[in-house]
Structures are given as C-alpha cells and as structure tokens.
Amino acid sequence: MAKYFDVHPDNPQPRTISQVADSIRADALIAYPTDSCYALGCRLGSRGGIDRIRTIRKLDDRHHFTLVCRDFAQLGQFVRIDNDVFRAVKASTPGSYTFILPATKEVPRMLQHPKKKTVGVRIPDHVVTQALLAELGEPLLSSTLLLPGEDEPLTQGWEIKDRLDHQVDAVLDSGDCGTEPTTVIDFSGGEAEIVRRGAGDVSRFE
C-alpha cells in the first residue's frame, strides 16, 4: 500500500518532505503535485522506477521522460543549451513548461530518446515540489500522471491513492493543482517547435 502524505501547500512540513526524499533515495516511486498537474516521480538512476512508470502509463521507449530540476544551474548540468535557447528557456522558468533539449553525459542513456539523444527538462513553480527538490539535492525523473485511455490527469491525492495504491509507494497531497499538463517546447533542432499546448503560454514561442 502507498503511504499517504498530507502536505501544507504554502508551508510544507520539513519532516514530511525529508521522509519523502528518503523514500525516493531508496528507489520509491511517488505521485506528487506540480504547478500544472500531478506527476509520477522517482530517483534519476532508478531503472525500476522507470519501468514502473512505463507500466502504469503504458509508454513505449520513444517517450520523453522529464527531469524536474530545482533551478537553472541544476538544469544546465543535464542538457546542452546555446545562447539563444538559453534566453528563451530562462525567461520561461520557473513555470509550466517542459523543454526538450540535447542530453549531456550526466543523463543515463535509458532516459534519452533512443534516436535523438534528447531529454525533457523543467523547473516547476510549486512550493511543495521545490521543497522536495531542495531536500533531494538532484532532479526528479518524472512523467505526467495521465493514465491510459484517459483525457485528463488525476487531480486529487485521495483518488490517486485509491487507484494506484499498489503501483506507487507514496502519494504527496497538497491539494488540487489543476488538470492541464505542461506546454512542451522542442528546442533540440535549434528552433522552437511546439509539441504540446498546455498550461504554459505558447505565444512567446510562435
């Protein structure tokens, strides 16, 4: 059964955040809130976590996983980014955007797109997620909590606990965080390509 953590949305309890971070280090798969919707997250190098996310969401090996980063300095360790792209990404973070960029050697091969060698990165604007990332000290490997055959992500922590009780190890609930996933912008070719229109304003990339 998944552990259930009720977290204050504005002042997350440090002890709870520490417990969740410890479980991630021990290879737990969690469901957690972001500034767009709930997501599944695990440790960066967790092969078991990746396999479980693929199973829950029925994903193939072409799916772009996302590295959810605390800040721009951390993001820069995992993707290659030129000056023009840097300015565009910097102006849009933190926020509800995922950017697809060429991966550095810091990104495990199993996380990269098999042909393009790219990975998704984002910096969320969410107090609880930021507290967890600060405690963890590294990015979360993440994927939107959108179940197969459903049009919208799950939005309530208790419902996630009920439906995924035996598939995740913990549910972090800080209240409703919306149903719209991030806007996805692919910069891997040098120019902005809008892959998915979501919670982030796309006008600056058109």
From TrEMBL:
Pfam families assigned to the protein according to its UniProt record, in alphabetical order: Sua5_yciO_yrdC
Domain YrdC-like: 14-200
Entries under InterPro entries matching the protein: DHBP_synth_RibB-like_a/b_dom, Sua5-like_dom, SUA5_domain
Keywords: Nucleotidyltransferase, Transferase
Keyword field contains Nucleotidyltransferase: yes
Listed name of the protein: L-threonylcarbamoyladenylate synthase
PROSITE patterns to which the protein is assigned, alphabetical: YRDC
UniProt GO MF annotations: L-threonylcarbamoyladenylate synthase
SUPFAM superfamilies linked: YrdC/RibB
The organism's place on the tree of life at top rank: Bacteria
EC number: 2.7.7.87
